[in-house]
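Budget justification aside, the reviewers requested a transparent look at the raw inputs and outputs of the sequence design task funded under Objective 1. We therefore reproduce one unedited record. The lines immediately below are the structure tokens for a 653-residue chain.
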């Protein structure tokens, strides 16, 4: 009997090799004899295969065996001899196959030799799928699920053989392969069993290359595998915790299963969010967009928990890969911001929505300001007084966009000044906002008064100066100090002193002019200044008056305009002759421009200054009596009459 002969064969490899020729002959004889004798041939072959399994299991699975050594040839020969009709039944063949598959250490080349031989020689995939024999296929899948196929438990060559067998044949996604278990009809008929196998694959894929490729092959074989399922929560939990790279078709199929099922979206919403989060963190923005399209967008008004949604995105945004943030903002955040802006959200969610706008801005990408503005412009929604402390973050987040070249992204970046303008408007009603924004606004303005060193340019891009216009309104005038004024004057002075060699722009000039106007207001508020600030102001005015006073078109230069703005308030700030003496270089320069250079408007500068000083410090004014008289007589500046009576010259006209 062949089975008895097989069981008594030696396990010593060298002896087996020496005796292989005679073993080969005797095997052939046994199977020839069985066909000539009055025996049940089918049963004979089943017993022979069982005996072969016993021999294999008794042999050392860890011993290195080449695919063409005597023992491997022996295994294939026995299987071949059992192949002719009448063959063992499918039930027996699957049982025999599973005896090896159920072994705890199946991940070796020796066992694979038998599995491959049985599977290919009897075309198991083809015959099992023809029925389909669902119970038998399910039992094979169960046996596979018991195996881990861990990377470290096998060598590269063995792993490669297993991968080729499983992915190329048994679980093949190729339409040209018929001897497989993964035909579409079979998988549809056994959807729960294959879903379970896939779940095993994605649990194990980080530890096993074999399971990774099985998972990928199953997705390709039937992308709609999860179009319906018995327990969707279990499936989603597994997917969200998986390291497997889910295919686009699979994701699309999974998401489409929720499109018409609002109850499933409600029930599994937290799992859906986790899947979206995992896809985004894996830089698969398009796949995440597909999920959102079929779940959040379709069921936004009926099934979406906005609070949970916002919390997920607030957590997610800072973790996002920098290289994918613009795509993320464009494909996911912008459509979401439109939905949230139009949705009538519970006012309890206002702080969360405001925080979401902040983390969007913190993405620091071109598309972000528009998305943030959509949220912040919700009418009559936000408790601005409660949110006031967060406005410092808002201003800081906008200010860091100064490093972006707006000339390339004019339309998108313009939303920044709209955000700051909104903050300034809200601060008019809620003074606590301007208290919170003061430090950040001042810090940004001082930076923008200097050169744009962070972008290797002399001046900042136009959007920066537009932000600066509104940012000036977010400086708290009650927090202005002499030190702050000193910083502003110093920054203006540096700009003026280099004005001839620096670039300029309309935006820069408007910004500097407005800063100067604010500075004049701050100086009036302080009323009294230390000597060092007076000297800095003198330096600023003299530097401005050295530069061209008019543009080519005849308009006043912005340097002259800034100097005039400060000069108009100087008279109010001087309280002693000592302080006035500090300004004598300016006084003489102004009079020289008026008389010698015939810049007539400087007579107004001259007159306005002495209108103050003539009354406050008449002794000082008397020193300029001859100039006053000459201006009246020779230049017909009759507006200076008012100054003459207060001088000690004795002139009364």
């Amino acid at each position: 009997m062949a089975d008895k002969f097989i069981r008594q064969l030696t396990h010593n490899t060298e002896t087996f090799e020496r005796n292989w020729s005679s073993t080969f002959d005797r095997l052939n004889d046994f199977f020839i004899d069985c066909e000539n004798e009055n025996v049940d041939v089918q049963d004979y072959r089943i017993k022979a295969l069982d005996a072969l399994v016993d021999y294999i299991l008794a042999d050392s699975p860890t011993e290195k065996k080449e695919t063409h050594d005597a023992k491997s040839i022996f295994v294939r020969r026995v299987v071949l001899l059992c192949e002719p009709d009448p063959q063992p039944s499918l039930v027996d063949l699957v049982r025999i196959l599973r005896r090896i598959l159920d072994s705890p250490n199946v991940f070796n080349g020796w066992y694979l030799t038998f599995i491959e031989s049985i599977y290919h020689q009897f075309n198991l995939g083809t015959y099992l799928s023809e029925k389909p024999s669902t119970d038998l296929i399910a039992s094979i899948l169960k046996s596979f699920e018991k195996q881990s196929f861990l990377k470290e438990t096998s060598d590269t060559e063995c792993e490669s053989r297993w991968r080729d067998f499983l992915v190329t044949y048994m679980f093949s996604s190729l339409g040209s392969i018929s001897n497989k278990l993964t035909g579409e009809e079979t998988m549809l008929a056994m959807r729960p069993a294959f879903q379970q196998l896939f779940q095993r694959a994605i649990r194990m894929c980080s530890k096993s290359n074999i399971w990774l490729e099985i998972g990928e092959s199953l997705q390709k074989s039937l992308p709609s595998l999860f179009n319906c399922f018995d327990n969707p929560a279990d499936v989603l939990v597994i997917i969200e915790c998986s390291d497997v790279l889910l295919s686009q078709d699979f994701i699309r199929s999974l998401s489409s299963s929720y499109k018409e099922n609002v109850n499933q979206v409600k029930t599994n919403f937290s799992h859906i969010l986790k899947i979206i989060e995992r896809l985004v963190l894996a830089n698969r923005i398009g796949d995440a967009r597909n999920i959102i399209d079929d779940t959040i967008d379709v069921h936004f008004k009926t099934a979406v928990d906005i609070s949970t949604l916002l919390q997920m995105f607030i957590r997610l945004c800072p973790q996002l890969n920098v290289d994918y943030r613009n795509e993320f903002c464009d494909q996911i955040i912008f459509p979401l911001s439109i939905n949230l802006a139009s949705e009538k959200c519970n006012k309890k969610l206002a702080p969360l929505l405001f925080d979401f706008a902040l983390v969007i801005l913190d993405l620091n990408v071109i598309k972000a300001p528009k998305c943030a503005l959509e949220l912040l412009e919700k009418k009559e929604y936000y408790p601005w007084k409660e949110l006031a402390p967060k406005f410092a973050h808002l201003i800081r987040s906008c200010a860091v966009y100064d490093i972006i070249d707006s000339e390339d992204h004019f339309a998108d970046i313009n939303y920044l000044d709209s955000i700051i303008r909104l903050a300034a408007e809200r601060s008019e009603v809620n003074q606590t906002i301007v208290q919170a924004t003061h430090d950040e606004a001042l810090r940004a303005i001082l930076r923008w008064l200097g050169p744009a060193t962070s972008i290797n340019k002399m001046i900042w891009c136009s959007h920066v100066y537009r932000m600066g216009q509104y940012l000036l309104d977010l400086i708290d005038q009650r927090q202005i100090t002499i030190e702050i004024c000193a910083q502003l004057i110093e920054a203006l002075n540096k700009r003026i002193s280099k004005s001839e060699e620096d670039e300029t722009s309309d935006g820069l000039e408007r910004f500097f002019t407005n800063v100067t106007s604010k500075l004049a207001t701050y100086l009036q508020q302080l009323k009294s200044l230390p000597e060092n600030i007076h000297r800095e102001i003198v330096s600023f005015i003299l530097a401005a008056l050295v530069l061209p006073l008019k543009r080519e078109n005849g308009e006043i230069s912005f340097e002259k305009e800034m100097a005039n703005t400060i000069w108009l308030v100087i008279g109010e700030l001087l309280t002693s002759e000592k302080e006035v003496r500090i300004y004598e270089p300016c006084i003489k320069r102004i009079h020289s421009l008026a008389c010698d250079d015939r810049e007539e408007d400087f007579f107004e500068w001259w007159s306005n200054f002495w209108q103050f000083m003539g009354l406050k410090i008449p002794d000082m004014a008397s020193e300029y009596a001859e100039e006053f008289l000459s201006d009246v007589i020779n230049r017909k500046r009759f507006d200076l009459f008012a100054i003459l009576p207060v001088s000690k010259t004795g002139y009364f006209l």
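The longest helix spans residues 13-36. The chain has 36 helices and no strands. Computational costs for records of this kind are itemized in the attached budget.
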